[in-house]
Amino acid sequence: MISRRNLILTAAAVGTAAQVGRAAGPAHASPAATPWPATASGALEDGVQLRWLEGGAPRQLAAGSTWGVPWPKGTVPEGQSFALRTAAGRQVPVQSWATAYWPDGSLKWTAHAVGAEVPPAEQYVLAAGTPAAPVAAVAVRDGRDEVEVSTGVIRCAIPKKGDRLVRTLVRGDREIARNGRLVCLRQGEPGDDEGGSVKSERFTGRVEAVVVEQSGPVRAVVKVEGRHRHGGRSWLPFTVRLYFYAGSDGIRAVHTFVFDGDEEKDFVRGLGIRFEVPMRDEPHNRHVRFAGPGDGVLSEAVRGITGLRRDPGAAVRQAQVAGQATPPTATWDTRVSSRLHLVPAFGDYSLRQLTADGFQIRKRTKAGHAWIPVDAGGRAGGLGYVGGPGGGFAFGMRDFWQLHPTQLDVRGAAGAAAEVTVWLWSPEAGPMDLRFYHDGLGQDTYPEQLEGLEITYEDHEPGFGTPHGIARTTELVFWALGATPAAARVGEMARAVRTPPLIVTSPAHLHAAGVFGDWSPVDRSTPAKARIEDRLDFLFEHHRGQVEQRSWYGFWDYGDIMHTYDPDRHVWRYDVGGYAWANSELSPDLWLWYHYLRTGKAEAFRFAEAMTRHTGEVDVYHLGKWQDLGTRHGVQHWADSAKQLRISTAGYRRFHYFLTADERTGDLMRDLVDADRTFLVLDPLRKIRTGPYEPDPHALAVSTGTDWSGLALAWLTEWERGGDPGAREKLLNGMRTIAAMPNGFAQGSGLYDLDTGAFAPARPAVNVGSLGAVFGLVEVCSELIDLTGDEAFTRAWLQYCRLYNGTAAEQQAETGQSWGSLNLRQAHSRLTAYAAAKLGDAGLAARAWEEFDTGHAGYPATREFTSARVEGPNVLKPVDEASFVSTNASSQYGLAAIQCLALVGDRLT
């Protein structure tokens, strides 16, 4: 099998990107695809309607915008070119490339990018045609020692080796910033006692590889990889992608680092990105800006000339406050101009956001002197600026307060060059402490650990609660500006950083394209359907509201939600073993993404996006012995000893990748193509298995539920993307051999061949668990059946769907024995609905709705979906409580409702 590490990227632009093509061949030979434009099956004859996710027309982009569009099978041939226009007919420069293919070779997903030249409009149309060319195309020069990118407005030089991420950033003939580098502060102990001092070390990011992934004409992407180094040590591998868009003076950066230290000895005290900014204007014409809450902006000058005992003149004061060049000092009141050297110059500014609800801004003249408090507030906008009328540097971090502790620093602005640092982890917050949260409680043997599961639901095992290999991704934006921006533009830039404008298509088009299996847009056409829609909205809004009310924020936590509620304390069980963070348990990721697909709501997209960023990075190991495995739910995201494919599954990332074309998310899915090798390293059944475990690569014990679904989703995604052909072969071999088992999916597991992806022939057996289908198996089987039409696999899956909630007699008759007392019957009502729809069986359809309404292990139809306000002194702060809600039940109720409505909604009375 071809290694994923040697793949040619398939999402590359071809030529000028006027045509969409592939770098690797399609999964099957491509017959002539139906010419586009399409029929009413999905692509409108005059194009696909697009809009901004948040509505309206943004005044400022975060450099540019990239989005994805799906197409019905057989409607858009490979090589099709695309043009973009506003609804009023104005042409918009666009770059397009393929991100997925149907098995017949036609395009399934395409990605599109616009730069600064996109005219403000509320709606756009994407159609067949020749794309308009940008006035100034992105140009990339890939040299021996560095990559240089020009957007037509700015030029950026990126060294291929050394300790600089960016050598220089130039606008026109003026260098705006230089020597961009990654910085890390490390200390060898937490420093949590009252005595002594802790020594820290400064590490600098050392670039090891630079790759141009896209080269224009509208969008260019440069990937930089390396490690942080100090002395003889190299650690904390990083990947930074820099995004450039035609006509833009901004650069988007996506920064990822992996923790590969020893949590008992390596404490990250600070982690950030730093630039030098040449300061050429006079100190009174040097400006500092920080975005505050909402549209608030702090506007300061390095040497202020307002509020003095003597007045330099109204025109002088007004110009400085506005960030404009002041009149020449010769025109000032001489009582001021002659004494300017006696006005302190404040060269250092710092905004620190140490919690989700509080930031503070301070300034000082220079190092060695006291800080002066400036102001404070709740939630900063995460954007800063330093510069003058001749140009300056703006810097911003997305989810600034959500990912606290964060910090924005300006140092030395009174000198020849300021130093700007965006701290992803503030050095003033205390060190990053990733140690396990308890001492093991004497659970040294498997029997003791199984006892622990019985009381706290925590699956503990010494040495398994390690963060070694987890990661975090942060999005940033940098601007090389020609002058100090007006306060209104600072606010616009801050909004673009906080919520990057994204172009989307409608739920109707997404559904008509036939992507992501069984779902349908919101339908309130009958009282029964409307009631379910109301409940789906309630559950979404309740969980979304809990993020704010329970403050589920922080560097390692933001994006996740809690697992189970504790009504006695009126809190979620944040401190109780396996009941704390959800870590994708029972697929909240899938539920949230399907909620977005069918509603098109911006808040649904942003909620799901934040979860994808978290669960794909923090809850999964990206290096080390458990690479490609995720961690089960617990008090810390990495704490539980159950390391499983059901958490790392690519199925939770596919939505974000195809809707945004985000390369980092694409990396995460491609990394999982070889995830089956984890069975050689770790026995998932080690605590209950009898006898020794000696893994045989040609006969590995792999379940046909949670294990195979995770593998299948990675292989399916790789197949769609036109990548490693071995992924397709393993997927098809798995389908064929599962179907060949005497009882198909009811066998529960089989002996799996690592080389081929096939299961060995087996004797009849039944081993059905309640979790097998609820981590993406339902979704992947539906997609695979639609894609391949494999009759044997379809029969095997339909048998499982019919029998899971069937009677013991029915199970006995077909598989030779009863499946026992199974849990999650409401969740599995969607399996019954699938069988009903495929077989045209009205009896099964009625049974599906009965199972759904009964609500076993979920929410019955008789349940009132309401919450109650709880206030002090019973709680720390007022909260809305729905004590019946659990994330497991919400996720599976949501998925069951969505899929039953799509499959047998016409049978709902």
From TrEMBL:
PROSITE patterns: TAT. Residues 138-494 form the PcRGLX/YetA-like central beta-sandwich domain. Residues 500-908 form the PcRGLX/YetA-like C-terminal alpha/alpha toroid domain. Residues 47-128 form the PcRGLX/YetA-like N-terminal RIFT barrel domain. It holds the Pfam family PcRGLX_3rd. This is Tat pathway signal sequence domain protein. It comes from Saccharothrix xinjiangensis. The lineage of its organism: Bacteria, Bacillati, Actinomycetota, Actinomycetes, Pseudonocardiales.
